[in-house]
């Protein structure tokens, strides 16, 4: 299974001490070139360049064709729904994911909604860190504590209803995601 | 008809999730830190709290997305 990572996903994910879990789930994670351009810190750049060298990450150039389709997607969504559901980076990743048949990794709610709203994108699979962590638990690569650990290390809150649903699905109802804030599960 | 119903349900969930996320960002933000910042960074963080849009917020701040994400963490605003 392959994935395309958006900037908003990647910047939180790299703060996670178990960030290499990503490669227990995906054989290749594609990084669009504009995503790489948003990274400046030595730690993140080192991690990315090492994984590029190991061929776990691969770079996608910013292609004019995908760029044009991403802009069309933005305008199509905005005109149909009267709300700007996706920005350019997420739109580009959705187009790249559609082209490659890869899972799109993003934290953007608009991008998550697009496959369910636009029939022509119904085949595109979009995951957030929540779905990635759930898959790691399903595969036995992480335990139920991984959700709380991610929330603390990435300073990230999962939507309460989605977290509850995932915890039930993976059998972690009493063993994970019991942290602070608006996403409490009890 | 089913497609229309799905879109309405999806939009309702989307808007509800946005409101929950906005509330969490407002409640958890370190407002004294935010008010101590230069106007451009302050405006960018306030925009982020309202929208959760990292890309546009980073452009308001005049930073890369990663640099802005670090500012977000310093301001104790969870990404949601």
The overall strand count of chain A is 5
* CA gyration radius of chain A, whole angstroms: 16 Å
Mean pLDDT of chain A: 89
Average residue-wise pLDDT of chain B: 90
Over the alpha carbons, how many angstroms does the gyration radius of chain B reach? 15 Å
* Percent helix range of chain B: over 70%
Strand count, sense and barrel status of the largest sheet of chain B are:
none
Instruction: Based on Cα principal axes, name the global outline of chain A.
Output: globular
Which ranges of chain A are low-confidence, i.e. pLDDT below 50, for 5 or more consecutive residues?
179-186
Order of H and E elements of chain A: EHHEHHEHHEHEHHH
Question: If helices are DSSP runs of H or I spanning 4 or more residues, what is the number of helices of chain B?
Answer: 5
Report strand order across the widest sheet of chain A: 3-2-1-4-5
The class by helix and strand makeup of chain B works out as: mainly alpha
Tell me which protein chains meet in the greatest interface and how many residues each side has: A-B, 36 and 33 residues
Kindly report how far apart the N and C termini of chain A lie: 34 Å
Describe what you observe in this structure.
The complex is a heterodimer of chains A (186) and B (80). With 186 residues, chain A is of the alpha/beta class. Chain A is 52% helix and 10% strand. Chain A contains ten helices and five strands; from the N terminus they run E-H-H-E-H-H-E-H-H-E-H-E-H-H-H. Chain A has a five-stranded parallel β-sheet. In chain A, strand 4 (103-105), helix 7 (109-117) and strand 5 (126-127) form a beta-alpha-beta unit. The model of chain A is unreliable at 179-186 (pLDDT under 50). Chain B has 80 residues and is mostly helical. Chain B is built from five helices and no strands. Chain B has helices at residues 2-28, 31-35, 39-51, 54-61, 65-74. In chain B, helix 3 runs antiparallel to helix 4 (54-61). The model of chain B has no long low-confidence stretch (mean pLDDT 90). The interface between A and B is medium-sized, with 36 and 33 residues.
